[in-house]
Write a structure and sequence with these properties.
The complex is a heterodimer. Chain A is built from 14 helices and 28 strands. Chain A is an alpha+beta fold. Chain A folds into 4 domains: 178 residues, no CATH class; 110 residues, Beta Barrel (Lipocalin); 85 residues, Immunoglobulins (Immunoglobulin-like), CATH 2.60.40; 117 residues, Immunoglobulins (Immunoglobulin-like, Sandwich). Chain A has an 8-stranded antiparallel barrel with strand order 3-4-5-6-7-8-9-10. In chain A, strands 11-13-16-15 form a 4-stranded antiparallel beta sheet, with no helix packed on it. A 4-stranded mixed beta sheet of chain A has the order 12-18-17-14, with no helix packed on it. The N and C termini of chain A lie close together (10 Å). Chain B is mainly beta. Chain B is built from 2 helices and 6 strands. Chain B has a 5-stranded mixed β-barrel with strand order 1-2-3-5-4. Chain B starts with 7 loop residues before the first helix and ends in a 9-residue tail after the last strand. The chains are: A alpha+beta, B mainly beta. At the A-B interface, helix 7, helix 8, strand 20 and strand 28 of A face helix 1 and strand 1 of B.
Chain lengths: 544, 130
């Protein structure tokens, strides 16, 4: 990496004028910018006033990714030159002083976590057209700005991207994402220097491979952390050990990378190098997020962390659903610090489920035998071991009503010589009607994954080419697109045919999902210098 | 007859926040917009999905044989605005569908009007609202 850039090639005069014109209209108090490096790199275009309020910057707050995007834009458009260490320092300072409170970050975490997420709360067709036509609506809501800064931002954005109507965007964003919020004020006053060092318990779920449990040892490394993660598959007992490094931005935004010790060539190998995006709770005792990888960040673990203590802790159970009227069900509970002595009364699965006996137990695992009454209440229930609770971990059902393939709408991408493929992992989830007795309504209960036979079929196959030509489905529900890019899109049914569950006609139940297999995304955020910025920020100057 | 017209990229990018990728899929070009057909059948499954909602239904031909058909609608997001849900069409419901037939002769229809056992379901997008 070219680290010897001139300090600042500066400065588009128009940008300077634009920035100057903004501050004169600001009526809200700004958030001072005091970091010498930020002032040195940004100050020639964004002047500061006597109270150290820096034009534009002092009237905005966002996530680490938001500040990274700004820095990329400044590098590409305004020719700001920074070294990797400087980039990291700038993002870290701004995420700390001009970041988001955990309560503000949580609703938009799916964007930073690179999840496919259906945004159902976009308030108007105009905002849908103007914002989410190009990016997730969460991208806008990841920012907090003064009313004047929203006005200026929207005007600039509209000019650059040829957006037509903007008045309602300014009105909505000024009201919904203001600079000053009670959540931010409270977070600034209450947050303390985070210290996450210690042993943490990990509950993770990887679509297609199921639940993993284990631990994460976090150690201090200067201002950052090093990690050692050891997790075991609940399904098959396979073990993954990952070594990583991370930084915490603004007291709650964990950003890091880790890599397993036994990586193979499979794209969905759980040992793959992963980016870690995790939100640390304000109490610094729990955390939640995603570790992900892949050209399109399509693979990953959904992760929950809790600080280990001297108390027993439940992490997972191996069977997510039990049938009413069934008996002698063996269920395995995985956890931490289970005592040597225990009785069936230490376990509680709710009314109608009886723990007949403890079959075996160790410090990390309990095997119990359960009976489920014919009259047991249907639906999800908590599982308890003494004071430790797994919320909604077990579903009681009488029969499966339908199978839903998840994700129900998705994309995969062909590859070519210079663009890796985009894969798609599917799961077949059994559902039962809810209390309203109707199918496909909001109270339906997801019972958990079921065994199916996977297949796929191109819409109107024949006219649009062969089903086999678009790619292959594995027995575990992983779709691998063809490596030859045909330069066209294909609508594809992903079909799950149940191995055990039957419909009313006695036929195997079938679930379907809609997948679009398309061309690769050809551009990846500018030149290599900018693409590497994520890695600089994650890894820090200590790694190459 | 009012036609549903939309561009595909906004549907994909707008209704599903897919920060990982963006792209397109088939449009209505596969259907003969100059021709309208009406088909009666019985719903076997309804998929309330992006980028298109789809109903699968069975039709008895003149010889009494069962044919499997597929009716395609706008996206889940579009139909949600019209009051549709995943339960709007239930398996076993009698359907009368009008729309444009597939150009390739497959048993598929771009649905522009649909009546179920419960009555007519609202379709169509006001071009002025887009």
């Amino acid at each position: 990496m070219n680290a010897g850039f001139a300090t600042l090639s500066c400065a588009l005069f128009a940008v300077l004028l634009s920035a100057q014109s903004t501050s004169t209209d600001e009526r809200e108090p700004g958030i001072p910018v005091t970091d010498p490096l930020v002032i040195a790199k940004c100050g020639s275009c964004h002047a500061s006033d006597a109270t150290q309020n820096m034009q534009r910057v002092s009237w905005s707050r966002t996530t680490p990714e938001g500040w990274q995007d700004v820095l990329k834009e400044q590098i590409l458009l305004d020719r700001v030159s920074v070294t990797p260490a400087e980039a990291r320092s700038i993002v870290k300072y701004l995420s700390e002083s001009h970041g988001l409170a955990p309560e503000e970050a949580k609703p938009v975490m799916y964007d930073a976590e690179r999840r496919v997420h259906e945004e159902t709360l976009i308030p108007s067709e105009s905002l849908r057209e103007n914002c989410s036509k190009c990016h997730a609506f969460a991208r806008a809501l990841s920012w907090r700005r003064s009313a004047e800064d929203w006005k200026q931002f929207v005007a600039t954005h509209a000019d650059r991207y040829k957006v037509r109507s903007t008045a309602d965007a300014v009105a909505y964003l000024s009201k919904s994402a203001p600079l000053h919020t009670s959540a931010w004020d409270a977070w600034v006053s209450r947050k303390t220097a985070e210290n996450l060092a210690g042993r943490w318990l990990v509950s993770a779920y990887m679509p297609g491979r199921g639940a993993f449990c284990g631990e994460m040892q976090i150690d201090r490394a200067g201002d950052d952390y090093t990690t050692r993660i050891a997790i075991t598959s609940v399904r098959d007992g396979s073990r993954v050990v990952r070594i990583g490094r991370a930084a915490v931005f603004g007291g709650s935004a964990w950003r890091g990378r880790s890599k397993g010790d036994a990586s193979n060539s499979a794209p969905d190998d759980p040992s793959s190098e992963a980016r870690e995006v995790v939100l640390i709770a304000a109490n610094q005792s729990t955390a939640e997020g995603r570790w992900f990888w892949g050209q399109y960040q399509e693979f990953g673990f959904d992760v929950k962390l809790q600080r280990a203590s001297s108390d027993p802790a439940l992490l997972a159970i191996d069977r997510p659903l039990l049938k009413t009227g069934s008996s002698a069900n063996r269920i395995r509970l995985i956890g931490d610090r289970f005592p040597a002595q225990m009785t069936p009364s230490d376990l509680d699965f709710g009314t109608g489920v009886t723990v007949k006996r403890i079959v075996s137990n160790t410090a990390a695992e309990i095997v119990a035998e359960l009976d489920v009454a014919p009259s047991a209440t249907l639906g999800k229930r908590d599982v308890r071991f003494r004071r430790s609770i797994l919320t909604g971990a077990l579903a009681i059902y009488d029969h499966v009503d339908y199978i839903q393939v998840e994700p129900d709408s998705s994309m995969a991408a062909f590859g070519d010589r210079s663009h890796p493929r985009g894969f798609q992992q599917f799961e077949a989830i059994a559902y039962q009607r809810g209390a309203d007795g109707k199918l496909h309504t909001n109270d339906d209960v997801a019972l958990g994954p079921v065994d199916v036979v996977w297949s796929h079929e191109v819409f109107h196959a024949g006219a649009h080419g062969s089903t086999d030509a678009v790619g292959t489905m594995s027995s575990s529900g992983l779709f691998t697109p063809a490596n030859a890019n045909p330069g066209a899109n294909f609508d594809v049914w992903v079909i799950a045919t149940a191995q055990d569950e039957k419909d009313q006609k006695g036929e195997p139940m079938v679930g379907k999902a809609y997948m679009v297999v398309t061309v690769p995304t050809y551009t990846f955020n500018g030149r290599q210098y900018v693409r590497e910025l994520d890695r600089w920020v994650d890894d820090g100057p200590a790694r190459k | 007859m009012r036609f549903i017209r939309f561009t595909v990229i906004p549907i994909i990018a707008g209704l599903l926040a897919m920060p990982r990728t963006a792209g397109a899929h088939h449009g209505w070009v596969d259907f003969d917009e100059k021709t309208d057909v009406t088909v009666q059948g019985t719903a076997t499954a309804f998929y309330f999905l992006n980028p298109h909602c789809v109903v699968e239904f069975e039709v008895k031909d003149d010889g009494g044989r069962t044919q499997k058909w597929q009716g395609e609608f706008a996206s889940k997001g579009e139909l949600s605005h019209k009051g549709w849900t995943a339960a709007s069409i239930e398996a076993g419901e009698k359907l009368t569908l009008t729309g444009h037939p597939s150009k390739d002769g497959s048993r598929a229809i771009h649905v522009t009007k649909i009546r179920t056992s419960k009555g007519e379901l609202k379709l169509g997008v006001d071009p002025e609202s887009r």
